[in-house]
Amino acid sequence: MDFAFFLIQLLNGLQYGLLLFLVASGLTLIFGIMGIINLAHGSFYMLGAYLAWSLAGLTGSLVAAILVAVPLTVVFGMALEWLLIRRLYERDHLFQVLLTYGLILVFEEMRSILWGDDVHGVPVPALLNASIPLTENLSYPVYRLFISAVCLLLALGLYLLIQKTRLGMMIRAGASNRDMVQSLGINIKFIYTLVFAIGVALAAFAGMINAPLSSVFPNMGGQVLIICFVVVVIGGIGSVKGAMVASLMIGLADTFGQVLLPEVAGMIVYLLMAIVLVWRPAGLFGRA
Amino acid sequence: MSSNEKGFDRREFLKSTAAVAGATAVGTLAPLGAAMAQAGKIKVGLMLPYTGTYAALGVAITNGFKLAVEERGGKLGGREIEYIVVDDESNPAKAPENANKLVQRDKVDVVIGTVHSGVAMGMAKVIRETGTLWINPNAGADEVTGPLCAPNIFRTSFSNWQTTHALGKVLKAKGHKNAVFITWKYAAGEQMMQGFKEGFEKEGGKLIKELYTPFPQVEFQALLTEIASIKPDAVVSFFAGGGAAKFLKDYAAAGLKGKIPLYGSGFLTDGVLEAVGDAAEGVETTLHYADSLNTKKDNAFRLAYAKTYKLQPDVYAVQGYDAGQLLAAGLDAVKGNISNKAGMIKAMESAKIDSPRGAWTLSKAHNPVQDMYLRKVVGKQNLVQGVAWKALADPAKGCKA
Fold it and tell me: By the 8 A CB rule, do B238 and B265 touch?
């Protein structure tokens, strides 16, 4: 590997890492901050991708599809929290696992009934449908770079929301002592509904914006679910910064793993997780 | 074309969890069917995926099989057919249990299944112990008609080895001296790589590098960069479904399309062309079926299938249809007397199947000896360019029967 290709692989790794952060960001909120083990995260991702595909087909534009679909998913997330999730805050984690696993089955079957089992493609928006030549036979799609930029903005937004705003302060307070926050006169129930809805919308948004790259197909959520949990666990539960660092680490490890150690490429990410957890059991930025 | 990885792959586990949903619903059909069993009917056990990623394939195979039976007036060898259906969920862990259900509890005369190679391997164990007649309408694991071959085991589809072996000749004819193979790291991918490697090296070509990405990961950027730095004459590939769609798009988006020609096993471009758009244009693949064979048999089959099911048939429907035809050949020869198993097997072994894909016979290991077509993606169709290899037979490595 000469130096130019090393740099390109570095770019691939960072870009993949940012993509992972985008997909895991919703889980960072729901699992990392609310402490809900949400196995249905991948299903929300899939829901977003299918919404993007069907709405982009109707409106003829991915941007329009996203503008319509994001509010829909926020409402959907609120309804879900109100109907099901809020009954489980006081219960053992096992109940959350059971419920959200059940939701995977329901969503997967609904997807099959509503949209069928075929593979679909979403075209890249015309404005971003270009490539930048890097070497004589390799070029880089502009849309990938665009997604990276969106990820960075999203990460910044999340960080500001949680660390710098009044709402973020209430969310953090609620995460550490729900009852105390409640007795201070803050409507913690509504805040939890809101946070869950934002988490769902983030997962769905990731599915939408990633749809032109990944295509839209059955069980696509299952593929991202585990890696999202790995991101949150390595980063440390409750830390947006940790999720970002973990995403980039995984992106780089996976990229260079495939190139340099192809025999064990499938294991590298989990190896990385094991090492981090032995070294820091609470994750990189988690509070022990 | 399916995984039979034995290790605990968490992603694959999660992927398959979604398949559990409808399982119970379909499972209840089995006892119902058993209760209605009557003397005189041939019991056909359909062990196929009806939920999960491969649900569409299971349905296509079932449709094809039933069409072959209907064309014969609903009877094979003069006897009516009773179907007993089990959804195998493409779940290898449940394969022995599901196969046992059909063989031991429902006492089916013949088992038709399945799509997923891992499930097929689990079935093989049960089938070899009980000696039940088994027609495999898809799962391409080389082992089924290799080390696991047996007189009662038949396949009407392909071996993984077959789907890429003819590409060696194709690449040579195009003047490519070296190539890179890229696929998922699992059994089907590795077997297809091996099939291509043997074919290409026989022609004097050189496989410079085997590139693998973990199954079922769909992030290809690192390996595409590798390909760009290696600069081979050609790239050969196997992916399927959503992974294939993404790979074809990424290959084009990375600017490799048009610079390094892309070839593949036919599954790379089957069922994904709508999703991929222009990115697949010009990609050439080999498979035992294509969209535009335009033979009398194929046209008749496509028309009948479309009329009956309001769906366009695909390669899986053809394989299911041929499973029905093969069973018919056996049952006709013994006039429906299924207890004459030796006679049936003999007739099936020597049958010449008049398939929509073109006529084929069985090898000694009971795998189709069939023409492999060279197909090219033109305007969202896999148009046939000619026969890449006439009557290609799987080498049946390790088959001692």
Answer: yes
